[in-house]
Amino acid sequence: MRYTLILWLFYLNSCQSTKPNFISQPKVILPMSSWESDQLGVSVAIFDCQLEKWYVYNSLLLNESYSPASTFKIPNSLIALQTAILHSPEEKWVWDGIVRQNENWNKDQSLKDAFRNSTLWFYQRLAKKIGKERMSEYLRKFTYGNQQVGDSIDQFWLNGILKISPIEQLEFLYKLHKKTLGLKSKVYNDMKDIMFTKSISDVKIYAKTGWGYDQKQDIGWYVGYAEKGKKTFLFTTILLTQDYQKVENFALKRIEITENALRLAGVIP
Fold it and tell me: What is the pLDDT, as a whole number, of residue 130?
């Protein structure tokens, strides 16, 4: 009995210290083909951190790399908090007075506001204050995508210099969830507060959307994790289209498709 208990504890500990291995582990294929069309490609992956179980639709796209777009606001926020450029999610920066198309951007913002509103000027200012050297250092530390910053410190996550695959997104989220990114404890707690999106029944969703363009297609992201009691499910969704205007509610579909996948996986009701 004691020997069995030791083996079980060793198994649990090893699960928590290793990153998810998509290639070698069994996968449940999600029946989601109805969401695809000639105009829209869809790929979804969900990882059950406790059972190390995968739920997947269209695995062919999961190792392809794309611009992270606004999903980069997750590491950008972490770096800003870790380096004390911002001391809390509530600390506000004054709007620069430039009127932009998104009305939610045209006011003073806290980090929490800017994350929720996906406020570009706020995160561009953050990136400039972080600087190329520190930004590169943390991207290497996080093993985030191809770890490239290039020469445009306020554009690299938008212009195709920095790229990341859906599986790499999950690997990064796994380290964030396990608190193995080498950050202060308060930073992890603050980031969780920033990322909280909604509750669905007894499940809490922590996530970020992203919308990029790589000169040939629009790229829609929704990445994050769901907490159901003591269980955590990481997820990444990517949508690809050559003309988002031909896809009804392209922006909302990122979330709708993800929630459908979580429902099929039994995570949400």
Answer: 98
